[in-house]
Amino acid sequence: MALSFDSVNKPENIDAKDWFNWTWQMKNGPKNRAEFSRYIELTKDESSYFDSDNEIFKSRGTPYYMSIAAKNEAVRKIIVPRVNEFKSGNQEMKDPLGEEMHSPTARIVHRYPDRVLFLATDICSVYCRYCTRKYFTGNDQALINTEEYEMALTYIKSHPEIKEVILSGGDPLTLSDKVLFRILKDLRSINHIEIIRVGTRMPVVNPMRITNELALGIREYGPVFLMTHFNHPKELTLESSEALSKIVDHGIPAFNQMVFLNGVNNHTAIVKALSRQLLFLRVKPYYMFQCDPSMGTDHLRTSIEESEAIQKELWGKLSGLAMPNLSIDIPNGGGKVGIVPNFEITREDGKRIYRGWDGKKGEYINPPTFQHELPPDFSEYL
Ligand code: SF4
């Protein structure tokens, strides 16, 4: 049976022209206790968060996403702040990925040889409580200034080893079409840039942003890959599924990155449902990340053992197309490391014995390693 997705019904007291307008969604979301209370009866833990004058991270939702959170505890944990954010005990870092130390110029993070992150804006339409970039996101809530923009472009232009630019932030789809297309155009005009990625949570929290004009404009500067960020199947609604279809129908490949979060998605069935539903919508589940030790996330983080157990349970039972890669970002900028279950039982005399996902054993006779001389026309890939 084909999968179907429920609509987030527009409240009767709001005009359709407002509700389906993404900038209205951005301007009219809750930012403080009184505004959050209009959507959800706050618990004591949630309400007390707003007592502090020293909030770690701004709070913000969209009316659309708050309507989902009001009906679902898991989504609520993603978006509604709570006093636990002030309680630390485990590893807690302002910049867990060490991005500031790998930033050669403002707005650029250059950690891997052939890729850079370009932080095009610090604005998001919601502020996810587990955000890994709290040192940057939502601080100035301003557009990038011309000087920083030019310096970032100059850096990319002067490093021909950079083949891929990942537009991130903040959320780059909070920029207007005009500003976004200008950035894509400028990047596409750099000869050595092969791939552009756009990392965004807009299809999840403000799917009204994904219009045909936007998709057409992005396609013009392709190949552009859209990296979405769904964490829970209840985030997949009729509206978000239509947004994803617009993206994929315009020939823009879409991938999803999920973060393991306590009480949100740390269950095999939830990851399975999310992955299958995303794949059905032609979005490849790409990563399931261990949550970074960002400040205020102790209560949201889950153990590596739990992630490994979920991955092992899914192995073989979930189509390889739907299986996200389990990965950890090594704190302080060590980069990503992948985790895969170990199926090898023994290795001896060129023979390896494995036990597969359903317990069946078998041997693989390992052929010798041959030297292969590289044809000269591939030397640029060394
Ligand atoms: S949308 Fe992304 S950058 Fe913005 S708060 Fe959420 S996780 Fe952080």
Fold and architecture overview:
The chain has 382 residues and is α/β, with parallel strands linked by helices. It folds into two domains: 16-86, no CATH class; 100-338, Alpha-Beta Barrel (TIM Barrel), CATH 3.20.20. It has helices at residues 16-19, 22-27, 33-37, 44-49, 63-69, 73-79, 146-157, 177-188, 202-205, 212-220, 238-249, 268-280, 304-314; strands at 108-112, 115-119, 164-168, 195-199, 224-228, 254-259, 283-289, 325-330, 335-339, 344-348, 351-355, 361-365. Strands 1-2-3-4-5-6-7-8-9 form a nine-stranded mixed β-sheet. The chain has a three-stranded antiparallel β-sheet with strand order 10-11-12, with no helix packed on it. The relative contact order is 0.12. Bound molecules: iron/sulfur cluster. Iron/sulfur cluster binds next to loops.
Furnish the topology, listing elements before pairings.
Elements: H1 16-19, H2 22-27, H3 33-37, H4 44-49, H5 63-69, H6 73-79, E1 108-112, E2 115-119, H7 146-157, E3 164-168, H8 177-188, E4 195-199, H9 202-205, H10 212-220, E5 224-228, H11 238-249, E6 254-259, H12 268-280, E7 283-289, H13 304-314, E8 325-330, E9 335-339, E10 344-348, E11 351-355, E12 361-365
Parallel strand pairs: 2-3, 3-4, 4-5, 5-6, 6-7, 7-8
Antiparallel strand pairs: 1-2, 8-9, 10-11, 11-12
Bound molecules: iron/sulfur cluster (SF4).
